[in-house]
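Quiz preparation item.
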């Protein structure tokens, strides 16, 4: 079936298989890493009490079916309960069954592992998702970085975990940046702008990170923040090579017709998922 609109570019390829539309990073495909980032119409909202039981059950089914499409074992899939922390944990034991927002992965926004067959999942609807791979040590990571996580340097913690727990060299690590809201649409009020300034004043790059937009219809001052650029700077500061950062360059809000977007879709938004497996 022909794609309604193709998001393929030099970094990612847009595919349609098994009823799913998804993106894959050309570099990870070249290295033989199984992975994908899901597109609409599928959603992966699995938090009881936040979404309906029916929506939660449909999301679990979507996970099972999507894993089958990208040839990973759904019974070895692990997804943390993302709560906008900078907490990154190691998956050091094979799960017996699909592990979604359970046990020791509560209040966690990043996972790393070197276990073959384990699939790491994360979800977003505008936030940044990072897929990490060290082809030397055979270690993967999957990181959720909303603006809070970005300001609290969850990406840095992920790299440190790969170094400390697996002996990775940051210069070897591949980082792939999935679709997320970009500076063009990430507007914030003064409180978030001030937090950004406090967190990154030391970089002397605030003029690149923050842009004043003007006043909205209610007379409230607004700024745009480039969380993707901030993330790249943080990664390079801990030794990731610039040429090893593969940014898809796709804004979730600009493409809200095909990518799940909280700001674009409103209160009934769905979550997209990124999955990576050794």
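Solution:
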């Amino acid at each position: 079936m022909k794609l309604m609109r193709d998001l393929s570019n030099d970094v990612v390829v847009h595919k349609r298989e098994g009823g799913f539309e998804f993106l894959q990073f050309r570099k990870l495909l070249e290295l033989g890493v199984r992975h994908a980032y899901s597109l609409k119409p599928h959603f992966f909202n699995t938090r009881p009490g936040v979404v309906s039981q029916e929506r939660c059950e449909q999301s679990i089914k979507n996970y099972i079916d999507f894993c089958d499409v990208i040839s990973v074992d759904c019974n070895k899939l692990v997804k943390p309960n993302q709560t906008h922390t900078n907490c990154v944990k190691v998956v050091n034991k094979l799960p017996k069954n699909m592990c979604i927002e359970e046990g020791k992965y509560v209040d966690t926004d990043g996972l790393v592992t070197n276990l073959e067959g384990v699939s790491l999942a994360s979800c977003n609807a505008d936030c940044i998702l990072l897929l990490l791979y060290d082809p030397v040590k055979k270690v993967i990571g999957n990181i959720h970085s909303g603006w809070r996580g970005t300001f609290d340097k969850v990406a840095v913690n992920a790299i440190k975990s790969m170094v400390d727990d697996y002996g990775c060299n940051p210069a070897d690590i591949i980082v792939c940046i999935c679709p997320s809201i970009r500076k063009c649409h990430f507007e914030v009020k003064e409180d978030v702008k001030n937090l950004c300034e406090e967190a990154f004043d030391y970089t002397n790059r605030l003029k690149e990170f923050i842009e004043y937009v003007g006043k909205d219809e209610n007379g409230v001052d607004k700024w745009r923040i480039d969380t993707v650029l901030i993330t790249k700077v943080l990664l390079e500061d801990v030794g990731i090579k610039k040429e090893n950062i593969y940014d898809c360059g796709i804004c979730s809000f600009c493409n809200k017709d095909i990518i799940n977007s909280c700001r674009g879709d409103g209160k009934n938004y769905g979550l997209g998922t990124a999955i990576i497996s050794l």
